[in-house]
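User: Predict the complex.
Assistant: Input components as received:
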Amino acid sequence: MEQSNQQHADLARKFNGNESRVNWHDETLWWIRQKRDKIVWQVPEWEALREAASQIKHHVLGNLADYLEEFERNAQQNGVTVHWAADAAEHNRIVHSLLQQQGVTRMVKSKSMLTEECHLNEYLAEHGVEVIDSDLGERIVQLLKEPPSHIVLPCIHIKKEEIGELFHKYLGTPEGNADPQLLTHAARLHVREVFMSRKVALTGVNFAVAETGEFVVCTNEGNADMGAHLADVHIASMGIEKIIPRREHLGVFLRLLTRSATGQPVTTYSSHFAKPRPGQQMHLVIVDNGRTVQLGREQFRNSLKCIRCAACMNTCPVYRRSGGHSYHTAIAGPIGSILAPNLDMKQYADLPFASTLCGSCSNVCPVKIDIHNQLYQWRQVITQNGHSPAAKTAAMKVMATTLSQPKVYTLAGKAGRWVLRNMPWLVNNRLNPWYKQRNMPEAPKQSFREWYAQNKKQG
Amino acid sequence: MTIGLFIPCYVDQFYPRAAIATLELLEKYGCSVSFPAAQTCCGQPMANSGYEHLTHSCNEHFTTLFADYDYVVCPSGSCTLHVKDHLHASNEQAALGIRRKLYELTEFLTDVLQVTTIDAYFPYRVGMHQSCHGQRGLHLAQMSELVAPPFSKPLQLLQQVKGIELVSLNRKDECCGFGGTFCVTEEAVSVKMGKDRVADHLQHDVQYITGVDMSCLMHMEGILKRRGSKVQVIHIAEILNAAVLQPATV
């Protein structure tokens, strides 16, 4: 338990072993935060848009069952086959069975954080199916045998020189060449061959429109479209929270999504998929995987409003300096830290503590999730469920006792300051994590209360 | 109007000069201030660590001590925010009353006392650290994430101090990484955040870093001292209370 509670801190410490790389990571993501600021200031009604989006999602979460059924009916009428998956395992089985029906062992997949959450690639690999991720960033981390470190920018932790080496090894690009144009051209040729030869393509879903049964997939690379249009079978995986009631609501969400994510006005491709073309099969897998549990947790319900823009990651001063992998979950950063404990409270007990509660995440969130308040609430829930280290609990009990008794507090304060002044080596040593890279404050002879008693008398 | 002075425990112990400046400043503006000597801590260190359930006796104690004042004023955005958000007691009416009449020092000066002139002299180059809880929690200043008109209560006050030269930072409201127990449980990231915040100030050649929260300043001070810097941290109350000397050059 002790270990799980420190996992983020340990991984973050390792990430901080290379300070210049941390600086580079921080500055890269801060640049995206600045791009976001610049473009949202061009929308005078920005705050009203956020509020509208938040309220639409609030309404959806309050009527989710009805909208899901309406969506299913309309999608079926359009000729789409709808599957329901209670959890990750069921989702993976459904996808695998669809592949088996086609008799194929190869699939192309565009970005879908849900499939990361369900560990679909690993599951399919175990069952002899090869999945090629067609999003460039995802393909890069896939070749590196790493998970994405960021939900919008999967390989943001990798430098172009490292991509040059990787592509030299796997795609035969010239050694030592890290020219982005050359590398993307090589990737294009590589992925194009994949698009042309795969019979089954899987995509994610950004928005599912209840009134029409259509779903919208947003990409900058057009890779979802390339995959889906060339394949005989299109499988789309979506979480139950992706529903919006009407098509007109896309006017709110599409304006918010990419401005928040990358500082672009809109994704290059916002593709509406309504029905299969003649001869094609279209399957939708609608996944719960813990979402209905979160829906039932009143203080955490709003986390389901998330549209996966990653603005909270880009702005998070901790994320920028600890890297996505330090969160050891598919969805990193502040939003991941409030979603993951719902999936496994013990395994992710450390994540709500990987924050200073600065609140910047809640302010950039396009659907106004009160992320930092939920981090605070998760800390309470995790502690009350016994997932805090025993040593921490003991220390907190001592602290609570000291701080609730004026005499004990006064004595402890006096003793502490005396130690700092007279035996600083007791505190200024390697056992004190504060002292490792920071000096302790100087201890004054007199506390304020002592000064007050001496100079003001009347308390 | 009697004011109950709420001094955060670590300010009481380590930065009494910030508390003295707060008291003197309030008295300068004609307030009758008293410091309930039995006060200890608001309970934030436990609550933010996931132990809000251990703060009951702190809360009871706090509520008893401060219930009868017209206002409660505190020179810390963070402790003020914690009490405003989380103070509950068996006498819930009294607790609610405190949550309503509790103010962070600078907002008390600008919003309640409506101070328009500051008689202070501080002829130095100063960087203002926007502490997150005061800014994003109490809305002491506009937040860079929002598309909304700018304002800043602490700066509004500092700008009236004679001789002061305020710098503008590259990242005007990024967290310093203190974060309560975060500063030790996530030592590596906390220090890195602090180093980066300090670097922004140093790049602008400040002589002092100020702010409304001594905890953030204590963290940055620890980093400054470790690197042997001469730059000092100072609570905003100390600047606002800095004696007006009128040298011939001003």
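Chain B touches chain A through 75 residues (CB under 8 Å).
Let me know if you want any component modeled separately.
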